[in-house]
Structure formats: C-alpha cells, structure tokens
Amino acid sequence: MADSPLGRTLLVANPAARSGHGAAGTDFAERFLSSWPAATEGYDVRRTSGPGDARALAAGAHDYDSVVALGGDGVIHEVVGGLMQIEPEGRPQLGIVPLGSGNDYARTLGMARNDVEASLAQLVRGRVGSLEVGSVNGVPFMQTLSFGLDAAIALDTTARRAHATSQEGSALFVTSGLKILSRARDGYPCVARFDAQEPRDLRTIIFAIQVGPSYGGGFRICPDADPADGLLDVCYNVSVPTIPHLLGLFGLARQGLHARSRVVELQRIAHAEIDFQVEPPCQVDGEKLTGTHFDVDVIPHALRVILPR
User: Fold this and answer.
1) Which residue blocks in 164-222 are alpha helix, DSSP H?
2) Nearest alpha carbon to residue 102 among 226, 286, 287, 247
3) Which tens digit of pLDDT belongs to each residue from 35-69?
C-alpha cells in the first residue's frame, strides 16, 4: 500500500446506489480504509441523502488529494461537476468505486464493476492519468451527452431505476429502447455545427457526444472514443432509417458494429453548436437537460483520475 496514490481522501458515497446496495458498499469501504492505514494519508466518508449532495461535497473538497465517488454514473457525474468548480491547480484527483446499473464510466476506465473490494484494491494500487471532460451549456459531463432517441431511452432507464426495476445494464437499456422506438419515426430537426465545418441539417434519431466509448450499460455507441485524446467523439444519423433498420442498428450497437452503417456518421470534435427546432429529449450522464440551443466543448486534461494498472 506504500505506493497508493490516494493521499488525503474524501469518500463520497451514495447509500441508495444499486437499489440500496450502496449502503453495504459504503460500510465495507469504510472498514477497508480503516484496516489499511497505508492506503491513505487520512480519510473522511460522507454519505449523500439526495440529489446535489455529491456535487456540493466535491466542490468543497479543497483540502483533499483525492475524492472517491462510490455509486453509479449519477453520483460520479455529480462529483465531477463539483470537482470542476475547483480551480485546476487545487483540484483533487478523482477515484471511483462503481456500484450502479450502467457503470459506463467504469468501463471506460477499466475499473471493476459492482465489486467494492476489487475496485478499492485497484485504486490503492493504481496510477494517475489526465483525462478530458465534456461541457454542455456549462454543465460538465464525464461520459455521455445525447439527444433524441438515445436520450429518451437513457432518461427512461433512469426513471425505471428510481422505481426499483429488477433489470440492470444492457437489458434495462434494451427494454426501454423497444418501448420508445415507435416514437422515433420522424426524428428531431436540428442544425449542427462541428468545429469549423459547414452547418449540417439533421433529423436526429441517434445523436451522442461521448468522452468514453459506451453508454446504456455497455452499448459502444462511439467505439473508438478515447478519454485522453483531448477530443469528443460524435455519432449521429445522416438519414432517417425505417423502424426495422433502426432495430437492426440498435442490436449492432452493443458491439459498436452500427458504425459500419451508411445511416450513421462518426467524427471527433473539440466544439459543437446544436440548435433544435423544438426541445428534444436530452440527457447528460443520465440527467435531464432542457433547451433548444446547446454549446458543447471538450476540456482537455481536466481531471487527474486514478486508473487501474
């Protein structure tokens, strides 16, 4: 443990994560840290009780070397948002103990999922890397921003988790997708401007902007996305497929094979401006975002993140 990168550590934990498994996970993490004094240079544990708590706790973590988020992508999103409120020179590094249904940021980082002991072991033996963060209308995101069908499905899965569905991961994403697909025939008209390119008129069904490759519990929507390359990856439809074709793309996306279709286009960008005719379904790391105009930027090297060796 002598080489642990954690330093003085704040553990921000969501006891309600994964339908209540977060409480036991938090207790285990606290026992783990108290049993191995060499893992940190002192630690505090703070349990969240509602939305916004994790963001506020991370934003106030000026005196810590590391902030570790225990929970699903929602609590990680809040912690990242809080850390981004701290000036870069004093910003603690981020660690995660993934305990959720989707766990897509954990997939991006290569962290053990829903195994508190294994992920803590990865952290205390880990290395620190410098990763980008996305920003949409001033809201930081660590993994996914999406519009249209993608967002409608993501928001539906979030709502179903809140009502304690027994489904998790890609199964949850698939069943939400099948329920919502019939609403996607016409898409959401928008004008998209990527970097210095000419504006594109799109009818958005698939429109995702990614830091890492996957969302929805492992669907590799931008299969080559690299969180350390200083760019965001975009996947969007350039024509409106039929419902059977869309179902086929939906199935192929699990392995990233939809990227071969002429219906979709992928590219890497540093900036985007997107204007919709009417307000579309929009989600950022699973949280609802409203509006018709969206300014999107990448913030390279925004976070120092503890990664597994």
Assistant:
1) 169-180
2) 286
3) 999 999 999 999 999 999 999 999 999 999 999 99
Residue 87 amino acid letter: E
Give the total residue count for the chain.
Answer: 309
Tokens of 15: 């006891």
Q: What is the DSSP letter of 215?
A: B
Does residue 292 have a pLDDT over 80? yes
Q: Which helix (H) or strand (E) holds 42?
A: none
CB 235 within 8 A of CB 199: no
Return the ∠ at Cα 17 (arms to 104 and 212), rounded to 5°: 10
Give the torsion sign (CA, 251, 256, 262, 267): positive
Q: Environment class of residue 33 by beta-carbon count within 10 Å: exposed (0-12), middle (13-18) or buried (19+)?
A: buried
Q: What is the pTM of this model?
A: 0.90
C-alpha radius of gyration, the chain, whole number: 19
Can you give the residue range of the structural domain that contains 107? 9-125
- Signed CA dihedral, 302, 56, 12, 140: sign only: negative
Domain count for the chain: 2
Residue at 96 is within a domain: yes
The string of pLDDT tens digits covering residues 148-166 is 887 887 777 766 655 555 5
